[in-house]
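User: quick one, sequence for these C-alpha cells?
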C-alpha cells in the first residue's frame, strides 16, 4: 500500500533530489507517497487505453495524450504521476512544456491494490480541486470505470461504454469497456 511519510512536509524540490530507485514518488499538499512499479495487468490495461486515446486525440486534434512516467506539478508541494493524461492543444499544436499546457483535459489512473486508497481518496480530491474535467479510475478486477467530474460527490460507475468529448473535438471518444477488460485478461 502507498504509505505516506507524515514526518516531513515535502516539496517538489526535495523529492527531485532523492536518488532514482524505480519507486514512484508523489506528493500531495506536502505529503509523500511512495509506490512500487505497476503490475503487468496494470500496464496492459494502460497500454490498451493509451493506444485508443492516442488514435482519438491525434485523428480529432483533441489534445496530446501522454502516459507515465511524467510529473504533473500543481504547486511546490503537490506533484503527482498519473498513469495517463490528455493535455489541450495550444494554438492548434501540442504544448511544448508543462507550463504552456496549463491544465489537464483528462486524467486516468489504472487501479492497483497498492494505490487504490490514494487514487480514490487524495488524488481524486486533488483532481476535483484542480478542476480536471474528467478523472477516470479503471478497476480491472471489478471490470468498471469510475468517472469523476469536479463537482461530483459520487462517481459515475460504467461497465459497458465510456464516452468523452473534450472541448473542440468534432466527435466523441467511445470505448467499449468489455473489449478493454477482455483484452487485458486474454
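Assistant:
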Amino acid at each position: 500500500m502507498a504509505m505516506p511519510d507524515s514526518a516531513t512536509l515535502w516539496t517538489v524540490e526535495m523529492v527531485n533530489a532523492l536518488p532514482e530507485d524505480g519507486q514512484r514518488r508523489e506528493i500531495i499538499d506536502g505529503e509523500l507517497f511512495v509506490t512500487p512499479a505497476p503490475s503487468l495487468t496494470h500496464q496492459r490495461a494502460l497500454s490498451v487505453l493509451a493506444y485508443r486515446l492516442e488514435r482519438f486525440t491525434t485523428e480529432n486534434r483533441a489534445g496530446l495524450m501522454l502516459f507515465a512516467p511524467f510529473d504533473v506539478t500543481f504547486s511546490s508541494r503537490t506533484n503527482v504521476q498519473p498513469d495517463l493524461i490528455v493535455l489541450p492543444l495550444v494554438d492548434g499544436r501540442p504544448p511544448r512544456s508543462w507550463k504552456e499546457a496549463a491544465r489537464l483535459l483528462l486524467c486516468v489512473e489504472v487501479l492497483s491494490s497498492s494505490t487504490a486508497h490514494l487514487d480514490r481518496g487524495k488524488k481524486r480530491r486533488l483532481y476535483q480541486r484542480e478542476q480536471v474535467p474528467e478523472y477516470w479510475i479503471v478497476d480491472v478486477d471489478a471490470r468498471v470505470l469510475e468517472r469523476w467530474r469536479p463537482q461530483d460527490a459520487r462517481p459515475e460507475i460504467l461497465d459497458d461504454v465510456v464516452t468523452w468529448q473534450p472541448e473542440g473535438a468534432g466527435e466523441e471518444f467511445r470505448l467499449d469497456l468489455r473489449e478493454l477488460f477482455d483484452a487485458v485478461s486474454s
